[in-house]
Amino acid sequence: MATTSTDSPTRGSAPEQPPTPAKRTARKRPGDVAFSSTALAAGITILVVLAAVLVFLLAESIPAFTGDPADNPILHGESFAAYVWPLIFGTIWSSILALIMATPLAIGIALFISHYAPRRAASVLGYLIDLLAAVPSVVFGLWGGIVLAGMVQPIYVWLNENLGWIPLFAGQVSATGRTILTAAIVLAVMILPIMTAISREVFLQTPTLHEEAALALGATRWEMIKMAVFPFARGGMVSAAMLGLGRALGETMAVTMVLSVSGAVTFELLTSTNPTPIPANIALRFPEAYGDGVSVLIGTGLVLFVLTFAVNALARWIVSRRAEFSGAN
């Protein structure tokens, strides 16, 4: 007679679950700990420095907002808002002009390097573009004030004679060529390397399968770029433009060596009465400033700080709206 084993589970009862293994935490190596700590310290340092700069600007510019404008050696009785408004206009106007000139040129150069030029020519041209970023701004200022201004002055005369009915080209043409348009050209050359480098890297990251699929469907190279490259790189191109705009907003020496302080608010590009950007105004007036006049200049620096921060925040917002698009999908 067979006996029933006592080790077999009872009919209808759930089988016993195997014991859950204990979770084992990965051991952190000293190199990983050192790297993560260094990265965290670097990030905190950036925030601390940014906060320190903001606190300094706020503390030192208080007399410009609370003091008597009549006793201020720079304001001369006018309010701080009335003084800084033409400078804000000059900063934005010169930067926008530079961005309008540099953006299509940067995108064209980046496309040529990434999709049209032979490999050797592309590497040489890319190296030259990157080398342009190493040129000091004072060199660009000397070139703009001494060489470029004299070269473009006859062109300004021609534009005034033939297109003077357009408000941008109206007015009395400057005899020296040192106008806001010349300063914008210098700024465009200065922001060209960073915009070209970023656009080139973004174009090169376009998925090869997307490009080959467009070509396989019979698209030309330009049609492939419009259908595959530009949609993928749209966020990167916006980032490049905003970074270039940020540098143009804060550029000092190049614009200072081309323009003179006038504080005018005008859209005319060819006259000697030019809008003045905030950095150039600070560089020209700071050596002779004293007392509350220094606070006024620091206050304009605070306005420039806020303006630059707003531009960068706008760029991040535009890029984040495109973040859902991924060429790898």
TrEMBL record:
Residues 88-315 form the ABC transmembrane type-1 domain. One of its GO terms (biological process) is phosphate ion transport. InterPro entries: MetI-like, MetI-like_sf, Phosphate_PstC, Phosphate_Transport_Permease. GO terms for molecular function: phosphate transmembrane transporter activity. Residues 1-11 have a biased composition (Polar residues). The keyword Cell membrane applies. Residues 1-30 are annotated as: Disordered. One of its GO terms (cellular component) is plasma membrane. Its main location: membrane. Pfam families: BPD_transp_1. It is found in: Cell membrane. PROSITE patterns: ABC_TM1 (PS50928). It is a multi-pass membrane protein. Belongs to the binding-protein-dependent transport system permease family. CysTW subfamily. NCBIfam families: phosphate_pstC. Part of the binding-protein-dependent transport system for phosphate; probably responsible for the translocation of the substrate across the membrane. This is Phosphate transport system permease protein. It comes from Microbacterium thalassium. The lineage of its organism: Bacteria, Bacillati, Actinomycetota, Actinomycetes, Micrococcales.
